[in-house]
Amino acid sequence: MAADPASLLRAVPDPDDEVTGDDVVADLRALDMKAKQEAYHDWEAKSYEEKFSISYDERCIEYARDRFRKVVPEGAGFGSVLEVGAGTGFFLINLALGGCLEGAELAATDISQGMLEVCARNGAEHGLDIATRQGDAEALPYEDDSVDLVIGHAFIHHLPVPGAAIREMHRVLKPGGTLVIAGEPTELGDKLSWMVKRNTYRAFRAVTAVPGLTTLRKPSLRERGASATDQALAALEHEVDLHTFRPKDVEHLARLVGFREVAVVTEELTANWFGWAVRTIEGSTREGVLGARWAFAAYHGYLRLHRFDDEVLARIVPPPLFYNLILHARKPYRPV
Ligand SMILES: C[S@@+](CC[C@H](N)C(=O)[O-])C[C@H]1O[C@@H](n2cnc3c(N)ncnc32)[C@H](O)[C@@H]1O
């Protein structure tokens, strides 16, 4: 039986505490994958939006709306929407603010209660009432045939059995209901982006090894005095990404559980490389060094490359090489 992650989070060691760093690391290692996901994302919830530069303004609204409009036409209406693996609400809230979910009842579920608390708070701050319910995407806590639109963004790659979640999303959709999952990494796109991340990191370390430039480096969690629990939870980052996908496998999986009108679209090549390089530098650089001009240049550079990928490279580069996968599918009125 896995240890309770909440108890681990309470076990923050202080000098008089009997819990040692080694105990915490051993306890975390003993968790099963779902409990690791919960513990890691509960811990990450407080810094998640800063880490991924998430906001609820035109920049992110445009990003979410563009992904959605690649597979759902303007004018499509939905009475109820459920986001699965919703995290802090990035996709759901930005789609609602962008006018894609007009008049719909909004609901969000996630394995991490910490994420859902931030999601509900974000919704309230933007005038949206989001009904949150903690649960596992592979066993959704919702009735059969109860939702018009199920959405997800960047979460099925965390699931031990992604097909089980796709079957569950089919189960909770009403007949005729729509599924949209975006932001999932493709197998080949992820390999390419890894090379970009690794080389950017190596280049950054080489440049900042020069005397006088070492102060540009962000101090590690240990150097910042983080507890053993924080360090052990942060290290789970390297365990919680479980899958990348071949577009044709995702399409096959969706059909297998009963979906029809299945379409898989891929996008982002150079924009993705640029984005990961920027994020790697941001994650490695001491706070306050990069500033507003960097953020402006990074954002506009990303947009330009995104257009280049869509308008030029999409015509000549094979779809599986692009990084981001978007799945659209419809639950038929009669079971197939
Ligand atoms: C990378 S975050 C994405 C969050 C959000 N969709 C976004 O795009 O910002 C992955 C999310 O999946 C959630 N998650 C991981 N395993 C899950 C599971 N078995 N069931 C439901 N949610 C899960 C995590 O808690 C986390 O919030």
Gyration radius, in Å:
21 Å
Strand content: 15-25%
Bound molecules: S-adenosylmethionine
Q: How does CATH name the architecture of the domain at 5-185 and 226-268 and 320-330?
A: 3-Layer(aba) Sandwich
Distance between the termini: 38 Å
Main sheet characteristics: 7 strands, mixed
CATH class of the domain at 5-185 and 226-268 and 320-330 reads Alpha Beta
Can you give the mean pLDDT? 93
Tally of helical segments: 14
Give me a quick take on this structure.
With 336 residues, this protein is an alpha/beta fold. 48% of the residues lie in helices and 15% in strands. The protein has a domain at 5-185 and 226-268 and 320-330: Rossmann fold.
Labels describing this entry:
48% helix; Rossmann fold; binds S-adenosylmethionine; alpha/beta; 336 residues
Describe it:
The protein is an alpha/beta fold and 336 residues long. It has a domain at 5-185 and 226-268 and 320-330: Vaccinia Virus protein VP39 (Rossmann fold), CATH 3.40.50.150. 48% of the residues lie in helices and 15% in strands. It contains 14 helices and seven strands. It has helices at 5-10, 21-30, 33-44, 48-51, 58-69, 90-97, 113-125, 162-172, 187-207, 228-235, 237-240, 247-256, 270-284, 291-316, and strands spanning 80-84, 105-110, 130-134, 147-153, 173-185, 260-267, 324-330. The chain has a seven-stranded mixed β-sheet, sandwiched between helices. β2 (105-110), α7 (113-125) and β3 (130-134) form a beta-alpha-beta unit. The longest helix has 26 residues, at 291-316. It is globular. The structure holds S-adenosylmethionine. The site of S-adenosylmethionine (SAM) has 21 residues, from α3 and α6.
